[in-house]
Amino acid sequence: MNILVTGGTGYIGSHVVVGLLKSSYNVTIVDSLINSKSSVLENIEKLAGKAPTFYQENLTNFSALEKIFKDNEFDLVIHFAGLKSVSESVEKPIMYYQQNLTGTINLLKCMQEFHVKKIIFSSSATVYGSGNAGECIENMPTGQGITNPYGKTKYMIEEILKDVCTSDPEFSAVALRYFNPVGNHESGLLGEDPNGIPNNLMPYIMKVASGKLEELSIYGNDYDTPDGTCRRDFIHVVDLANGHLAAIKALEAPGFKTYNLGTGTPTSVLEMVETFEKISGKPLPHKFVERRPGDLAEIWANPKKAENELGWKANLTIEDAIRDTLSFLENHQ
Ligand code: UD1
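That is the input. Now the predicted structure with uridine-diphosphate-N-acetylglucosamine docked in place:
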């Protein structure tokens, strides 16, 4: 089976590509390398024993994408490519809508032209919005109270996919709603290493642990949670990647489906810091500061639907994620 993976050199995409190649799928990656490095391709090959076909291209370039579809016969698409910084999306909404929405529409136009009718989309728990804090279930309403353009693009793309499925009874789309991905492949060869000052918790912790940033600011310790800090559902990226492989079978039946990919267990920011200190054996400098605007006190997945329908569930722990993060750091010092 030939699979097109957009954004396949990114943090989550690269882990999924390794899983696909190891399961004997043929993989073609289209990635602009705006937010990733071509060296990831060598590491994918080292881990999978096989190389994906690679095109450096942005999905906003319709004619280039069309040519890629013409030159290959894809059976299905896994769509990761997109911009993903919450704060940058607030500063540059047009850039986010242009990249994420135009990119997806170009992709869907090519899929329609070349009769490719199966897609897995990289969505996010952010679609549940601020009205659905706590445990999230797939049948809850989405789209209300999303605080930033990045999150809105995830919601809008889910809606577009729903409409495409309605218009074409042979089309199948699966939106996977990720909770908070952390960790990396145990080899330490793949991972997340954003340029500049990261927004997300784990990349920030990594910069502090490697001495590149002085200390972690924990945003708020006065939430209505057991230790006062926010709680999230941190899921190991290798578990998350396996969720995509499991979702391929859900594409056999046409229609639009959504699945939460999370562990079902929330962990607080402070617990994350303390576990990191325990496993690394070193203190992680941190201080408590004001709440970050837009943060929910707690949000976690109900992962039962993925377990029941896909036979998938998360197996790795935050300890595993931290151990693997430390080996990635060793490789990238
Ligand atoms: C955010 C996005 C989510 C996106 C995800 C990617 C929103 C509201 N959230 O989730 O859509 O999919 O990133 O992983 O759109 N924290 C600190 N100090 C830091 C960084 C984070 O205390 O330096 C805290 C935050 O306040 C939060 C927790 O750590 O409570 C997790 O933050 P983060 O990693 O940014 O993820 P989310 O905000 O949950």
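The first strand starts at residue 2 and ends at 6.
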